[in-house]
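Think of the structure tokens as a kind of shorthand, similar to the way a musician reads notation: each symbol stands for something richer, in this case the local conformation of the backbone. In the example below we present two proteins back to back. Begin with the first one, reading the sequence and then the tokens, and try to describe in your own words what changes along the chain.
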Amino acid sequence: MKTSDIAALLLLGALWGASFLFMRMGADEFGGMALAGMRAIGAALCSAPLLLSRQRRIEMRTHWRPIAIVGLANSALPFILFSYAARSLPAGVSAISDAIAPLLVAMSGWMFLGEKLDATRASGLVIGLTGVVWLVAGTVGFSHDGGSLGWAMAACVGANVCYTFGAHFSQRMLRDLTPLSVATGSQLAAAIVLLPLTVWMWPATTPGAASWLAALGLAALCTSLAYVLFYGLMARVGASRSMAVMYMIPVFGVLWGLLFLHEPVTVAMAGGCVVILFGVALTTGMLRFRAAPTLNEAAAEQG
């Protein structure tokens, strides 16, 4: 990877990690539904210049149904679920939970789509899911408010289930479309769906300036700009290398929560993060163990 691509990858990880900080900052005053709607609507407005491309407009008109489904699965529903979770969970915990998406993609592909898992990937799946249990138990089990935290963790898992469905669906139904067409169309679909719900659930008290800045950061930086960076990276370095950003989101999410919200880094957070990322590295093939040589191979090397 070029230096510019590495810089773009780091920036993308920082932006997506910051999304949990911004949701934590704005969720209380906006409410989960209104904040999710502002994120989708703002991102659609920021992405409007991309509609100037005639090819993108044609692709969106021709494939609007599957693009709308991706908009629901990858944007509208996860935005709502993560915004709801942000009212109870620290930003760092929500960010760590986002790392389970590759695990769910691999597991669902094996269970429902007939994709094969070798021993290394299967081990990574077990290790990663163990880390999830560790994180959930450490976050919920030792809190006086375990009920609401439990629902918040369930919302994070639900958001990642949505991402998993969106990944498989877009891979099968939209693989021939240009990535920016899918990104722009899906944000537009999410905005259309969430607009009436945002109006209906708008808070009675006008949110303060900090909450508005958080909503703007979510829409413009963590969604619109981040998707442009992500799809540009995929075009230059490929999907597998671009997915390395999943390892950076928890790190940046915990860092921003520590720096700006003074959230403590607990043993459960640190341990769960390490175990989950190790499992993700094995499951996605980023980390491989070299098989021990057979007797014949060892003899050949010595000879």
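Once you have a description of the first chain, move to the second and do the same.
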Amino acid sequence: MNAWFTATVPSVLSAWFFFCIMSLAPVWGNTYPVTPSTLAPLEDDEPVLSMSIDNQQYQLSRAQIESYPLYDVDMEHPAGLEGRFTGVWLDDFLEGEGVSPQERIRLVAHDKYTVFLNEAERRNTRYLLVTRLDGEPLSREQFGPLLLVAPEEADRVNAGILPMTRWIWAIGEIYQQ
């Protein structure tokens, strides 16, 4: 190879790679910070979630789910909802309910859409189990009673870079697998 080629091509490729990285930076950054919520837990005792843990099945209300620390994130959901989403970190909730991080879980929506999350997926992405939008309990029209979001992925999901296959809504059941 000639000297021009070996000196120029790596520089051009480096510049092109840097340009590509910088053009994607806005969708890689977390523009949706999650902060501790100032909202008080709901007092709604109506069951909204069926749990199946260690072959034990039981029901939980929003009040019981919100007994775990609440967090807020202002963001746009890829399916159109936008505002302040409030909920609990999925792993904190699961651990409190007796599910270890190594176990796979299955989330089932009311229409039977199902998402499985294994240890690696839960370790690599923090999921927020959302109970409210703009301070109000999620309604069925707002994908309630519960929905799962990954705030750190929101920009990439909204940009179409990542699929939203794990952003399940209308969650009614969680199973330990």
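Compare your description with these statements about the second chain. The helical segments are 3-28, 62-65, 90-96, 119-124, 154-158.
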